[in-house]
Amino acid sequence: MDTETRIGVDVGGTFTDVALLTPEGRLVTAKVPSTDDQSVGVVRGIEKACDDAGIDPAEVDAFTHAMTVSVNALLEDDGATTALVTTEGFRDVLEIGRQARPDLYDVTADKPAPLVPRRRRFEVTERATVDGIQTEVDESEVRALADDIRDAGAESVAVSLLHAYQHPENERVVADVLREELDAPVSASHEVLAEFREFERTSTTAVDAYVTPAIDSYLGRLESRAADLGVPVPKIMQANSGIAPASTVREHAVTTTMSGPAAGVVGAAETATDSGDDLAGLVTFDMGGTSSDVSLVRDDEVERTTDAEINGRPIKTPMVDVNTVGAGGGSIAWVDSGNALRVGPRSSGANPGPACYGRGGTEPTVTDANVVLGYIGGSSALGGELSLDVDAARDALAGLADEAGLDDALAAARGVYRVANANMTRAIRAVTVERGHDPRQFGLVAFGGAGPMHAAALAESLDIETVVVPRACGVLSAYGLLAADQKHDSVRTLRQPLSGLDAAAVDSAYADLEADTLDDVTDPDDAAVRRAADLRYVGQSFELTVPVGETFDAAAVEARFHEAHESAYGYRLDDPVELVNVRATAVVERDSLDVTYRGGGDARKDTREAFFDGAFRETPVYDRDGLGTGTTVEGPAILEQHESTVVVPPAWGGTVGADGTLVLTSGGDGE
């Protein structure tokens, strides 16, 4: 049994979620309102969870944290005043980009403004090629440039020189001089992303510089508050699904984007990995108030990508591959100019929120539709505090029905429910069918405040037969923080044809990468280093990542690439294969969570009319926390808990596992 008391805290836009696990396996969860200074809400959440658990915060042995500081800075254009230093003649790379329009057929669509405006983009005389340094940088020129950067009011600096991924000598000189001359953080591209493609490397480095001051300031405040509370210095969740020391994250701030969603996927994997031996993997489905996040877990590993954008800015560092759609519990339903019913992406937010909250909201939302359909009842209390106004929900849906030409509020509610489900089904297809995976071979893990209400219906539409609802489904990102391993990534471009591979160069590159990743690990002796490689057919402009063993076996790696290409795109070629990038990931695994669950008692609460199979049916309502281990539930049924509600349709049944996880299985055809 784990002897640590662990606490995980995930900050969201509305609530800060907390999960605390004692050495005895007792899981305590809490929610508190998020605060403008997120560290204040974090401390309040820790105090509340510890108070509920009956322990002193000083008894906490391990503190792990996910936050939205960096992603908020990007979404709200509220990061540092940033300068960019680049090779003479290339100051506009960041603005030119890839010449790709956000909407192919919209000639008026605007691209996002670059994070660094042209007046703060500076050039330095130097030149490198893939073969080496042609023109060395002049330190005196860089020192003079530092004065210009200071005069421009820059709070942070990004340095991205041509071909510095291959030959970083000039870039290293520039970065070192600027660090001496300026009282501002400096992000160098060869330290952030030693990978080719100038625009993406420059963009990623600019993002790192843009969010670094905010991350550094926030973590400083959090560490101080944690010390006052007696809680250990936090380890921080990265977008790559691994945690890292706060000191490391301060040097690689770009790695914290998508921190919270990554923790949720880790929590889903930890909870549901053993739910079916015959499953090819898991589809994770997180439906919150504003949006739904979908991702994949295969071979017990979270799917990752290095091809992501946030607010139109490419970020090439590894992160959990999450597909997001604007369909959440608070998503507003509306009628478009063609008289079609639409849902989202606009949301009612938390205040006033859906009409059923009784806080002044009048626009119909997905949550209001669930109320009219009977999936949420007037006696339900969201978060243990908020009672619902059924009449207000019905009035909002009646207004939508009039606008859409539907019969009544029920018809509108059915339409909203179906449209929202269709939006989320497309998101699931995007990470499964469109990437060569059959969703029928996967289980669906549902979490978030609204996810378990829609999960079975989504599963039916995709012929998925297993739905897993974790016990801590309303705070699963915080729960995932308790289980996340420590991970550090490194990459280097090394373009070579597999047929004429320079084995010594490949071995040397991997040795350097492993040393880099182990430098960031707190316990190098406990770390395992995993190798991977990016490959493509010669002439392609995109790569696929495949695993590599302890030694680089070109034939085995090529076979894996052919297989991966056929799985992703439906075909393979006889064309020669090219090695593009080599990758290494150092992993320090944490002990698996050992959670005890007691449950039991009188779980039956009451009954209410809920809509299934085209009609209202008298449906039993249970207190989910009262269901004991091994209890079976037959649909139709509704299971309520403070943070979420589970809807079990007819032809579905469920069993409560030893840790309180509910596994639903389909026993026939539903509506």
Automatic annotation (TrEMBL):
The name this protein goes by in its record: N-methylhydaintoinase (ATP-hydrolyzing) A
One Gene Ontology biological process: glutathione metabolic process
GO cellular component terms, A-Z: cytosol
Record GO terms (molecular function): 5-oxoprolinase (ATP-hydrolyzing) activity
Pfam families: Hydant_A_C, Hydant_A_N, Hydantoinase_A
Residue stretches making up the Acetophenone carboxylase-like C-terminal domain: 504-652
Residue ranges occupied by any Hydantoinase/oxoprolinase N-terminal domain in the UniProt entry: 6-181
Annotated Hydantoinase A/oxoprolinase domain residues: 201-489
UniProt xrefs under InterPro entries: ACX-like_C (IPR049517), ATPase_NBD (IPR043129), Hydant_A_N (IPR008040), Hydantoinase_A (IPR002821), Oxoprolinase-like (IPR045079)
